[in-house]
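Can't attach files on this board, so I'm pasting raw text. These are the components:
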Amino acid sequence: GQNIDQPTEMTATEGAIVQINCTYQTSGFNGLFWYQQHAGEAPTFLSYNVLDGLEEKGRFSSFLSRSKGYSYLLLKELQMKDSASYLCAVRDGDDYKLSFGAGTTVTVRA
Amino acid sequence: GAGVSQTPSNKVTEKGKYVELRCDPISGHTALYWYRQSLGQGPEFLIYFQGTGAADDSGLPNDRFFAVRPEGSVSTLKIQRTERGDSAVYLCASSLIGRGGDTQYFGPGTRLTVL
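---
Top answer:
Structure tokens for the assembled complex are below.
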């Protein structure tokens, strides 16, 4: 299986920027996903990276370095509604299933 | 269009009982996945369907767990002789084709509590 590590918790102030790191180990990398999950709700798709580099989507950006087994999710101009758990997930080789990290709980304070 | 739906949203049962959890995927999605999520953890893969067939059931923890998708749409996860350790949120996801950069869309989950 995959070893996917991400910090347990992060706290930031409204309007600030937060970067959530994710490291992984796979035998045959085939894509990395970020999901947002509010308490008691379904994970919702945020971003997908399969090639190295930065993908920007509004206030959210995701970066991937395959050689380092590393990704980050950047949340800009934080809003209170961004308080949630952020899940890093990796697809390995020809697998269709996702292997998830434990999630990073982000708390946005006024 | 409608997203993935799951019923019931909550299920409380007693140890040893049988339960069925239902998933209705996004219309037209051929791939369907079941995951299980415990408190403070990420979802853990259970089983994957491509059409009507279970393409990979390697995540099912033991033979008390079984899932079907008889017509290639709705799926039912069945748990026999439930144990307290089965308590978790059971998430269903679907995707268009099941490979490549295909995005999985999740339902709201069924929270199963085994007393």
